[in-house]
Design goal:
The chain is 32% helix and 26% strand. It is built from 14 helices and 20 strands. Strands 3, 4, 5, 6, 11, 12, 13, 14, 15 and 16 form a ten-stranded mixed β-sheet that branches. Strands 1, 2, 7, 8, 9, 10, 17 and 18 form an eight-stranded mixed β-sheet that branches. Helix 1 packs parallel to helix 4, helix 1 crosses helix 7 and helix 11 runs antiparallel to helix 14. 45% of the residues are buried.
């Protein structure tokens, strides 16, 4: 059984990763009618499995990718000002010893890194004596000096979700668990058939422009839904990370040079852990099957142990994750050499426009969106000027250094919440936290406690405003609480969600929102 959407959209986007959601937000903000569908949850693919950095890509300088590095460095501070609750400055230590890239080369690279992006907010590079600093304590004694420079940390999946929330607020129709299964031209428009992942219902949408932002599945969509002939545009490169218990107490991260000339990071993660990665190998499998291999785990541990005083092993890994980067296949001989730049291919006729997106990185998603909108404007006509450069994402109206002040305001308003929970709320929702908890006066008014400071009122918000459907949606993409939840707690949350959606299975989305407002 299928139903037809009566509305003809200006823009239909397939794919709910950072690129697709970024395009939807930008287009909706300019006044275009937009519909976006994602076959799984938002940010469930590449966009939640990154190293979680907003950075220029220091190592790209070795491959002479100066334009990509400059664009990324400029975007660093744009995004920092746009979302200072989920993006914040981070200092990186680059340890050095004999046998590595020569010190003069590192100094030159860091000089370029400091100046290519017209840096205004972040501090520049400095020299650090590791043998006389706490930053050298976790490292082996042969690392006597190094360099310290700036980049930014980002909660990658929340960056996607907040872009989606803002797109929705600006009028876009946003749907997850809704797979594009057929795309064809009909009556001068794109006719796009989608299938609901939960109930199997089909819906047919019509649109003037079709944007294929399906990431690792971009070729699959071209081959299966659009019936293209064996499209092969992307090279799937797997990047894997491990998480171990906290290895050091300070707030610096390390960027380390490996024996095979690759680099990897050791980064403070969620206050209690250290994140280490990434690998960079050809995936060679379906994008559906992405999992860290035993060899990758060993590789990361062995790489870290070349630097660490206290060695780590497989038994120390508390969590791991893998993602595939859909890099544009430029024929590079190795995965490490494949371009990280995005490639846009537009196919235009008198009556239709299709744009395919290949590759890209989370740091440049906003610029990519502006590039896509140029094609849309050429085809449909201009409706509004570029606007995202000076915008804020929902909850981000706090200023670059406003996190602590907001945490103090939340503590005053909700003194019954723990410091750990307050900090998490600031770094997930920013000022939206006040909307979630409203006039709650005591802990009991937050409803059922699922564990680790997650209460029913927050879960209600995530279902109502952020399209959460499963415990994974809530615990690993809308938060990182899954690392601290027990199996029984996850089971309880699963049961709550199952009961909730069964009770509301016939309720339309708008009615559901109204009903849920009454709950809180």
């Amino acid at each position: 059984m299928s139903q037809n959407s009566e509305k003809i959209y200006d823009v239909f986007v397939a794919g709910g990763g950072i690129n697709g959601i970024g395009v939807a937000r930008d287009a909706a903000g300019r006044g275009y009618s937009v519909c976006l569908c994602e076959m799984n949850d938002f940010a469930s693919g590449t966009s939640s499995n990154s190293t979680k950095l907003i950075h220029g890509g220091l190592r790209y300088l070795e491959h002479y990718k100066f334009r990509l590095v400059q664009e990324s460095l400029k975007e660093r501070e744009v995004l920092l000002k746009m979302a200072p609750h989920i993006i914040w400055p981070m200092r990186f230590i680059l340890p050095h010893s004999k046998g590595m890239r020569p010190a003069w080369l590192l100094r030159l690279g860091l000089f370029l890194y400091d100046h290519l992006g017209f840096r205004k907010i972040l501090p520049g590079t400095s020299h650090v004596k590791l043998n006389k600093s706490e930053f050298g304590d976790p490292l082996k004694s042969n690392f006597k000096f190094g360099y310290e420079y700036s980049d930014c940390w980002v909660d990658d999946s929340r960056l996607v979700l907040l872009n989606a929330v803002d797109a929705s607020l600006k009028g876009a129709k946003i749907q997850n668990y809704c797979k594009v299964t057929k795309v064809e031209k009909s009556d001068g428009f794109w006719s796009i058939t989608t299938t609901d992942s939960f109930d199997g219902k089909h819906t047919v949408f019509k649109a003037k422009c079709f944007i294929n932002a399906s990431g690792p599945w971009v070729d699959d969509l071209l081959n299966s839904s659009l019936k293209s002939n064996n499209s092969k545009n992307v090279r799937l490169v797997r990047g894997s990370h491990i998480v171990v218990n906290k290895l050091f107490d300070h707030d610096r991260s390390y960027i380390c040079q490996n024996n095979d000339n690759r680099i990897f990071f050791m980064i403070p993660y969620e206050d209690k852990y250290t994140l280490i990665g990434t690998t960079d190998i050809d995936h060679g499998q379906s994008a559906e099957n992405v999992e860290i291999s035993q060899e990758e785990k060993l590789y990361i541990c062995e790489s870290a142990n070349e630097y660490l005083n206290t060695e780590i092993g497989l038994e120390d890994i508390v969590w791991s994750y893998s993602g595939v980067r859909p890099l544009y296949d430029d024929g590079a001989s190795t995965a490490q050499e494949a371009t990280r730049d995005y490639v846009i291919k537009a196919e235009k006729s008198e009556s239709s426009l299709m744009v395919n997106i290949f590759g890209g990185k989370i740091t440049t998603y906003r610029r990519l969106s502006e590039s896509i909108l140029k094609h849309v404007e050429e085809f449909l006509g201009s409706k509004g000027d570029p606007w995202t450069n000076h915008s804020s994402l929902p909850g981000g109206d706090i200023g670059v250094d406003g996190q602590l002040d907001l945490q103090n305001k939340l503590q005053k308003k909700y003194p019954f919440l723990t410091q750990e929970t307050l900090k998490r709320l600031v770094r997930s929702y920013g000022t939206i936290s006040f909307n979630i908890f409203g006039d709650a006066e005591h802990i009991d008014s937050l409803g059922k406690h699922f564990g680790s400071g997650l209460y029913e009122r927050e879960v209600t918000y995530l279902i109502q405003e952020e399209w959460a459907r499963t415990s994974d949606d809530i615990l690993f993409r809308r938060s990182k609480l899954g690392l601290s939840f027990s199996r029984d707690e996850i089971k309880n949350l699963d049961q709550y969600l199952d009961d909730f959606f069964k009770a509301n299975s016939h309720t339309k989305n708008d009615e559901l929102k109204s009903k849920m407002v009454e709950i809180v």
